């Protein structure tokens, strides 16, 4: 068994696609119309055949209160690995990304938390070598 697709719940698929591709650097993999929404996935440029991230609409009534509670408590929805957290932090800040947590060394990892503009906090993390 392996992870094939995971999702992040977004308030606007077009805005999410722009942020996740143009800012974070992912690549669109799949786009299938499904009525008002789409099956819309992105992948890492480094692993185009790897795990897909579904940019899933947050229209279910339970989702927005859940997302809001996570943001209010400063809890990231998910985490992405980076090779050089400090360089990625500076690159993203240069693109106007807002961070709710600056780089923080926590034992064997360095993390930072950003606002994805789609209603989520996202952690980026690097294992220290």
Which value, in Å, is the CA radius of gyration?
A: 15 Å
Mean pLDDT: 97
User: Order of helices and strands, N to C?
Assistant: EHEEEHEHEEE
- Main β-sheet description: 4 strands, mixed
Number of distinct beta strands: 8
Distance between the termini: 28 Å
Structural class: alpha/beta
Query: What low-confidence regions span 5 or more consecutive residues with pLDDT below 50?
Result: none
Percent range for β-strand residues: 35-45%
Categorize the overall geometry: globular
Reading side by side through the largest sheet, how are the strands ordered?
A: 1-4-3-2
The percent of residues in helical segments reads 10-25%
Instruction: Please give the count of helices.
Output: 3
Architecture blueprint of SSEs:
Layout: E1 5-10, H1 13-23, E2 27-34, E3 37-43, E4 52-57, H2 63-72, E5 78-81, H3 85-94, E6 99-106, E7 109-115, E8 121-127
Parallel strand pairs: 1-4, 5-8
Antiparallel strand pairs: 2-3, 3-4, 6-7, 7-8
Provide structural commentary.
By secondary structure, the protein is an alpha/beta fold. The protein is 24% helix and 41% strand. The chain has helices spanning 13-23, 63-72, 85-94; strands at residues 5-10, 27-34, 37-43, 52-57, 78-81, 99-106, 109-115, 121-127. A 4-stranded mixed beta sheet has the order 1-4-3-2, with helices on one face. A 4-stranded mixed beta sheet has the order 5-8-7-6. A hairpin with a 2-residue loop joins β6 and β7 (109-115). The longest helix is centred in the first third of the chain and has 11 residues, at 13-23.
